[in-house]
Amino acid sequence: MVRVDFGGCVLLAEDGALVAATVRGRLMGPKKALGNAVVVGDRVRIEVESGRAVVDEVQPRRNAFSRRAAGEQPTEQVVAANLDQVVLVTSLARPDFSPGLADRVLAQAEHAGIPARLVLNKIDLGGADLHPAAQLLSGYETAGVACHAVSALRGGEGLERLRHTLLGRRSLFVGHSGVGKSTLLNALVPGLDLLEGAVNEKTGRGRHTTTAAILVRPEPDFELIDTPGVRAFGLWGIGSRDLEQAYTEFRRFLGRCRFTDCRHETEPDCALREALEAGEMSPPRYESFLKLRAELEQEERLAEARTKRPRS
Predict the structure, then answer these.
(1) Model pLDDT, residue 311
(2) What topology is assigned to 243-308 in CATH?
């Protein structure tokens, strides 16, 4: 599956040809929308009817990367399926690096069992001094995240190493609007010609250019999925009680606290805080965990209140 739009999609055949297809109504939701039934990256079986391809079956997914869809009611949005890795694209500036988004995407990838990479683009905006980029990435490297500092514009700095990690894999690119995701993909694959957007000078935020997830295969066994830039990223399938499992650097310390229900805040003999004080994990990542857990707890309280709200 290369692209999905409303009730139709574009398929990538085994011979590399692109095939427009419709989807059986029984695969769609109650409102005859595809929703999560068919997403980019799916493998499907088709039948040809009256000269047109029709998706008749979606094969089981080996994995899927999801997020919480916008709206008050919690709903899953499957972004893409059958992935080898998630590539989180961020920027040093214009817009500034967002640790909140980064940690959410990395947690979601970990929850889905999909390896992830963190790409810091626009390092040229730091001038000749690479210290800001190195300092920003050091906490993630301590957490075991594969990191890349690149400049898609300044001579393609760092791109060859990144490109090497993409070969032989299907990679999902995710990031804020304006971080240069499409520019980066164009630099990685000359001639790809994805639409590139600008950053709003007043807000520092990017303008959306990609409008739907789309898969491209520039070479055999080299697949890239571009996605629309996001303003925010809601976690899906991760609760406040199991968030700690989505922070990979926490795992070797979990279960070693004095109290089995330790919240890793002020409790004595907390293995997590002892590791933090010993410099074995990143303070920003720890603070990010506490903040994100508090947000999830608030969402859970609101959801519980909605279920108890009397009907008028």
Answers:
(1) 63
(2) Ribonucleotide Reductase Protein R1; domain 1 (1.10.40)
